[in-house]
Amino acid sequence: MGHRSHSPLPLGPRSAVSRSAFLRAGASLTVPAVAGPAVLGASSAQASPAPRGPATSVPTAPGRGGDDDPLEDGLVHGSSLFPGNDGQAHEVTWDARSFRIDGERLHLYAGEIHPWRVPAPAQWRELLQLMRAAGFNAVSFYFFWGLHQSESGGPFDFTGIKDVDLLLRIAEQEGLFVIARPGPYVNAEISMGGLPAYMTNRAASLRSTDPQNLADSKDWLSAIGEIIARHQITDGGGSVLMWQIENELIDDDAPRKEFVRALAQHVRGIGIDVPLFHNDYGLGGRFRDSADLDLDFYAYDHYPLGFDAGGPRRQIGEAEDQFREYAPESPHFITESQGGAFTPWGAPFDAAQAFEFTDPAFTRQWGVRNLGNGVTAFNYYMAFGGTNWGFTGSPSSGFTSYDYGAAITEDRLLTGKLAVQKELAALQEALPQITSMAPGAAPVVRDLDGAEVTAYARIATDSEPSASDGGAPRLLGFRLADSNDETDTRFAVRLVLGASDEEGDDGTGGAGQPDADDADPAITYEGSWTAQDDAAAFGGPCIAPRRRGRARAGRSPAPAST
Question: Is 248 tagged catalytic?
Fold first, then answer.
């Protein structure tokens, strides 16, 4: 088996494709997830239908307020029916492998968009439709406190570009789960990390249990929470799936733990019953004791290349073992994963270089690495960067453009990176059993011609039917060991799909199995062809030709794959 990759659309690295072509190409995708093009999957089961629960309310309608409802915008609306818009209450649970909705496993595949970084709400729908067409099943939103309130104790503005209710309703219509991230602090390279300007001259730590600052933070969470509470998947109101508490606190000392705990308890007290989590910076293990903090699970962000888009890229490493030290019983969730890089004021690189820094080749390698490490909940930061309007950008780390080198450019053009992200979504949709998979023994790479290869293997644990007797759905992934290497590389691996009575010499199992490629002239066959109804084939029963008789293997000059 060689290492091959391709793009479904003829895109250059930074070139554009028409929206109509991309939307047509995405029309066949249902609620999908992530996988990788340099990956093989073997399974017989089809994707499971979207989970359903008991009806508790009327399904979400196209509009809620008559002709003057901003949701009645005259645009083409999504038509996906999924647990976020069916008007039914759903239960969100999880185990070590994945999140579940009503017991059905979910591979959460999201991209980040900041609603205030587009010119007007009219662009929200377009961006969400592009994400849906690219195979994403979720969107992550930061919410910018300082944009909604200008004085302590003052009113909150949720109109126009700040209309959070409208944003969430559009996401529901377009078939996307929502990861809600209202801070209070969010970073996002915005002014004061999202905190309001009126807090500038306060002496006490702004992210603390200081009475004044904590009271203002709770007021904000109550205001935004009143809106989000109407859109929770758990009561049939909408597609909000989870809520992030604060962001990237750099230390989990006692005062900061108390701060996170106070925020979490407040959020639960205002009617939020979706799962709560904190985003740990860089897999540092901070705030991993979720139960003690009134959180539900541990999650983290990871930017493997760093942010110096004008310099050398760092290596992609592995993370599963370290993650499992911190969170042995919850899904491997990367809350923010590198989708580009910001361009600080005065940086010696621009958005085009940030794109090349995180180009389609990196996106493929990163996708395969994450699959190989059991990541089943994932969010690209950013899917679309946009623009820092007015004085919303942070002076130290951003200026007018927040293009971020993302897969959708600041002027909303589509790039080859988005096509690769769509490939990842499509493969995961084809092999939903990835969400139950545990690590297995990686196959031995043979007949290597090129650079060193890292191999991954994962095997389903939910007793799904398999294409081989005694086997299980599995995933094999491969990437270059040096993630910055561009050497053309070919290799072979041995595939033993069924159980073996003996252990092979190379540790892969399958002793006694033919050890030559089936195209090798050393393989000959006796007997005749017959048709057999193969109920184990992926996609359902089919009639497949099968040789009746036995294979004879002569001497092979060198072992290959079977």
Answer: yes
